[in-house]
Amino acid sequence: MTAPFSHSIRVGWGDCDPAAIAFTGRLPWFALEAIEAWWEHHFDGDGWYQLNIDHNLGTPFVNMNIDFRSPVTPRHSLDCSVQPIKFGYSSVTFEVKGRQQRRICFEGQFTAVFVVADRFKKTSIPPHIKAVLEANLKP
C-alpha cells in the first residue's frame, strides 16, 4: 500500500474566528493547499498554475464533502494527509484528513474534473497523470 502524502500547515491567528478556532471557511482552503502540495510533490514542483498555463490543463472542483471532527487551532501544526481514492475517464477524487496532535480535525473528499483550460471543455486524464494516480491510489 502507498502511504498517503503528508503536508504540514501552520495555522495562524489570522485564520481564526472570534471563538479562537480556525474559521470554517479556512478548512477547505487548507485541504486544497494540501492537494496542490500533492501535485507539486508528484510532478516535479508543477502545481495547478503550471498545469493551467504550461499544459493547458485545468482541474476545477465539482464536489467537496467535509466532515468536521475537532476544532483546528493555532496551537499546533495541521498535518494533512492526501491520497487519491478513485479516478475515472476525466475525474479524480482525493481524500484529505487534517490532524493536529494525531487527532482528526476534519476529513473530506474532493473531486476535480480535467478540462482543456482555454476552452473549459472536459478531457481525459493524460496517461502520465493517470499512471501517478494509479500508483498512489488508496486500496
Mind telling me the CATH superfamily name? Answer: Hotdog Thioesterase
The profile of the biggest β sheet is:
5 strands, antiparallel
Here the CATH topology equals: Thiol Ester Dehydrase, Chain A
Oligomer: single chain
Pattern of helices and strands: EHHEEEEEEEH
Which word captures the global form?
globular
The Rg value, from CA coordinates, equals 15 Å
Instruction: Kindly report the average pLDDT value.
Output: 97
The CATH architecture: Roll
Q: Strands of the biggest beta sheet: in what spatial order?
A: 1-4-5-6-3
State the distance separating the first and last CA atoms: 7 Å
Q: What portion of residues belong to β-strands?
A: 35-45%
Which parts are unreliable, with pLDDT below 50 for 5 consecutive residues or more? none
Q: Tell me the count of domains.
A: 1
Structural class estimated from helices and strands = alpha+beta
- Total strands: the figure is 8
**What's the CATH C level?**
Alpha Beta
How many DSSP H or I helices?
3
List the helices and strands and how they pair.
Blueprint: E1 5-9, H1 26-42, H2 48-55, E2 57-58, E3 61-68, E4 78-87, E5 91-100, E6 103-113, E7 115-116, E8 121-122, H3 127-136
Antiparallel strand pairs: 1-4, 2-7, 3-6, 4-5, 5-6, 7-8
